[in-house]
Every structure is written in C-alpha cells, then in structure tokens.
Amino acid sequence: TASVDIWHLLRMTSIQAGLSTLLSLLVGVALAWALNRLRFFGRGLVVGLFASAIVTPGLIVAFGLLTVWGRSGWINSVAHRFGASFDVPIFGLGGILAAHVLLDGAFAARILLSRLDSLPERRLKTGQSLGLSALTRFRVIDWPAMRGTLPGLAIIIFLLAFASFPIVLLLGGW
Prior knowledge:
Radius of gyration: 19 Å
Oligomer: single chain
Helix content: over 70%
C-alpha cells in the first residue's frame, strides 16, 4: 500500500490557498475600484453576477475553464481555424488558481464594491473639489474604506480555497 504524506498535502494545499487568496484579493480590489468609478449599461448585471459567485459550485467553474481554455475548448477551436493554437496549462496549479480567482475574485469584488458604494457623498465631493487624481483618491479615500474589510475577507477566501476539493481534483491531477 502507498503511504500518504499528510504534511506534504497540508503544505501544498496551504500554499495553493494562500496564492489563491492573494490573487483573489488583488483582482477583487481592482474590479471593485473600477466598478465603483465607472457607470455603464449592464453594470447592475455584472455586479449581480459577482454576487452569484459565492453560490456557484466550483465544479461548474472548473468545467467552464476546460470548455473555454482546454485542448478541445472553444478558444482552441477558433484558433485552429486560423492556423494557430493556444497551449494554456489549465491543469495543475495554474488551473486551480484560475478557477479560484474567477470565483473568489468576483466574491471579493462584490464585498469591496459594497464598501466603496457606501462611502459618504460629502467625502467624495470633498475629494472632487480638491482635484484629487485617481491614484490620490484611491490612497486617501478608497483604500481606507476597503482596508478594514480585507483581513476577514482573506480568511473567508483562504478557507474556501483550502476546502475546494472538486476544483483541485479536476484541475490538479495526481
């Protein structure tokens, strides 16, 4: 019988969950900031889809990634028609991280966007009257609003990524 190295599995799962958490928070902050500053047709639908990320099963996302980026996925099907090919490494750590960032980055963006949307109007008008650049506004107004939410959000995302066995089994391989 083969022996299972539990400590190795825990270490690798922790590394994967840590990387997924970091990337998801970075994507979440960027998406929330962009969605807060931009108004466009369909914005409500995009925000609603982000809210649904928490209830979407990981297996659906993993199969979706394979359908789009896999060897027989529609990206490669279109590329073959033009004589090209995309060799995207969808299996292994890259695929696991991509699936987690799709799910958890959207979840983080939704939570952080609600923090940004709840900023008092007078604070935003003060920043506008001072002529703050986008980067300065982020540093002075937006970042302090999001910063307090990040530790709790990071814990939730880490636990979601740590316990996501369907994604790891489908895209991780053995």
